[in-house]
Design goal:
Oligomer: single chain
Number of strands: 5
Strand order of the largest sheet: 1-3-2-4-5
Largest sheet: 5 strands, mixed
Radius of gyration: 32 Å
Length: 233
């Protein structure tokens, strides 16, 4: 092969390589760009997705709203005691470290045959409230756990000696306690116990603090025989 032929073949090969690169490089860049766009979109979707608790409860509620039974049933998680088919249902937001809440629990035991109570733990009183609330939500026997807890809180109040309480760091249940707290705050509640119940007239009863059984029975519109029986127990 003479020098002229070699030079022509070399130039032809170089031209072919350039044509290949001109076609291939944009294709590669487009593929890389598409992969980046897909990964970026996936990352954006992942970061935008809200963290949800394991229980199927809704975090979608406004920062401020009227107290309602519907909102509690949609987003609250509590300990339920009393007849499943009771004519009246009362929701009580409480802090596990609150003596007034413990006393109210004990007082309302006299109404349990007539009224269904759901007790929703919140964390308003500092360290320990959330983990103790999570433990109560996890209890196999909620009524016994609540009674033992209330007794411990009141005993500590009387003696000045702290009574150790069961705690749980289950992330799902801690998220439930946090949601309960935010739900109560959205209702404008800033102290516990906080009572929410539907009345026979269709209105919503809300009350910050404990309530004597006679007043609660009257507000719930229970029939007089039921009220009398509850007062005697």
């Amino acid at each position: 092969m003479n020098n002229y032929s070699y030079l022509m073949n070399t130039q032809a090969s170089s031209s072919a390589r350039r044509r290949f690169l001109l076609v291939a490089i944009p294709t590669v860049l487009a593929a890389v760009g598409l992969a980046y766009a897909v990964n970026a979109a996936h990352a954006a979707t992942a970061s935008a997705a809200p963290a949800k608790a394991g229980s199927a409860l809704s975090d979608a509620f406004p920062d401020s709203q009227p107290a309602s039974v519907a909102a509690i049933k949609k987003s609250g998680h509590g300990v339920t005691v009393g007849p499943v088919n009771a004519a009246r249902e009362v929701f009580v937001f409480f802090d596990p470290k609150c003596p007034h809440c413990a006393h109210f629990w004990q007082e309302t035991q006299a109404l349990r045959s007539d009224v269904k109570f759901t007790w929703l733990p919140v964390a308003f009183m500092g360290p320990g409230s959330a983990t103790q609330g999570a433990s109560l939500l996890a209890a196999g026997d909620p009524s016994a756990a609540m009674s033992a807890h209330a007794s411990g809180v009141l005993a500590a109040l009387q003696t000045g000696v702290r009574v150790p309480q069961p705690e749980s760091n289950d992330p799902t249940l801690l998220a439930d306690v946090d949601r309960n707290s935010r739900l109560l705050t959205s209702f404008g509640g800033d102290r516990v116990p906080f009572i929410v119940a539907a009345t026979p007239a269709g209105s919503v009863l809300t009350h910050a603090g404990g309530m004597p059984n006679d007043d609660l029975v009257k507000a719930l519109g229970l029939p007089a025989p039921a009220a009398s029986a509850a007062a005697k127990r």
